[in-house]
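Researcher: First entry.
Model:
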Amino acid sequence: MGSILTIGIAGGTGSGKTTITRRLQRQFDSRVCTLYHDNYYHAHDGLTMEERARLNYDEPAAFETDLLVEHLARLRAGQAVDGPIYDYTVHNRAPETQHIEPAPVVLVEGILILASPELCKSLDIKVFVDADADVRILRRIVRDVRDRGRSLESVVNQYLTTVKPMHELYVEPSKRKADIIIPEGGHNEVAMELLIRRIQAHLQEAENNG
């Protein structure tokens, strides 16, 4: 397959990571594949729904990052992987997996990907998406209530007890590991154009060398 470009897209909850990821997916289609860190939350089959709901999902220990690193290495080696799927409505990993074929560009998205030194070493370009805290909490409320079956009270409670303190402890400091910081997420057209051009250059180079 030739060289594979890996791009990490990090940032706080509701910062606009997914907007950027989806725009790149639409732009490059099958030439891009994506690993979402959220899908690598640990499985908690032995806990009740209430117990799972009380867990801290915003600290590095919540994720099976070693498995993500392993899957990224396999994709870089041109091998397909069967990645986990996380079901937000039940706070647990789904029994199904998703088959991911390798592509010339691999995107890795998640709030804490830059907090993992091992994962950082596997990323060619590290992006941090920045947004004001009030914008992020409003986006999270809309998303979790509309798409994830959460109540307003549960979203606000989770934000105040774990999301906000963990953001300050882990996510915000990880910004220093980024090569590129993008304010305003996917709505920052200058930054999007730069990312798109970088990917286009990589794809052209891979084609020429292929």
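Researcher: Second entry.
Model:
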Amino acid sequence: MRKIAVLIYRLISPLFDPIHMWYGFIGYFRFWVQFFQTKKHIKWWSMSLMDLYPQPQDATKHTPMDAHYFYQQLWCFEHILKQTPEKHLDVGSTYQMSGYISKITKAFFMDIRPIQANLSNLEVVDGSILQPPFAAHSLDSISCLHVIEHIGLGRYGDPLDADGSKKACHELAKILKPGGFLYVSVPVGRERICFNAHRVFNPKTIVHYFHELSLVDFSLVDDAKNFVEHTDYTKFDHLDYGCGMFIFTKK
């Protein structure tokens, strides 16, 4: 019964995307035309109805891309590669990010929802950004990309905390070693809470939250998905949903 339910879901779900509904109908029609054209050239039993998996949304002119994640990961990886730290802690960013970093240095990946991965140079840590299991002033390289905005909103099973993001910044600053580098990205623009998905920060707020540290550099992805490097963080509080990328150090 469950297999049938899953099949029905796969067959009809592409039709109920309200943003791309018209495109979905066109793609769905094309799917069935292609299915029956293909069936003429292969044996029926080798293409079971139970295995149909229509993907009408993928025949696009350009490959869909999340500009925030694409640029922030390249930005962060490039800087870590230049610094060549002996070890690096990533806090809650994409698990792919930690995998890449483990190929250039000893890497730790910490999350309240730890991944199950087996890489020789990657250690997975089950821990919270609000109570990191690392001593103060112990790490010279830390990244936390598109994470701080979620803390305290309950989205990922964490406790509700109105000051969650502010507390997270304090904890990251505390475990950073003097002379070390912290790479942080968050949504920036018109400051607000989009409960319970994320917060959007005025860039000045993030600099204030990390008042114990010194800002080294700021880059961002703007609303038009342009990647702008080495710019003035004070000029982007008007954005709707940009991605601010901050490099901090501790003196």
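Model: Note on the second entry: The two ends are 62 Å apart (CA to CA).
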